[in-house]
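Notebook entry, structure prediction.
Reason for the run: the old model in the group folder had no record of what sequence produced it. Starting over properly, with the input documented here first.
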Amino acid sequence: MLNKHLFVMAKITPKAAFFEAAKIALLSLVGATRNEVDCIQFEIHVSPCGQFIYLYEEWTDQAALNNHHQEKQTKAVAQKIEHWLAAPTEVALMNKLEQSAQSPRQPHFANA
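New structure, fully documented this time:
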């Protein structure tokens, strides 16, 4: 059974010279984005190697994500960081699989 919420994982690869600026720009979105009515979760992570920034998001549906991309502050940050990228942003859209009440539970296999 699929959860109807839309999950987003985006991998952003800024040029080394713009990594800190990209982090600051993306962090500026956190408060406003989390306050959007259909935003359930909006998190920013960095890789241990310091080369990648990951966005992890959960929205009520695709329309909510589309609305987020039309927000003034989202557009401004997207336009700013597009010139700082070393590679195109990789985006995965997902729906969460959930076990239904009728489905039998799968056995848990411990590592031997």
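Summary: DSSP finds four helices and four strands in the chain.
The old model has been moved to the deprecated folder.
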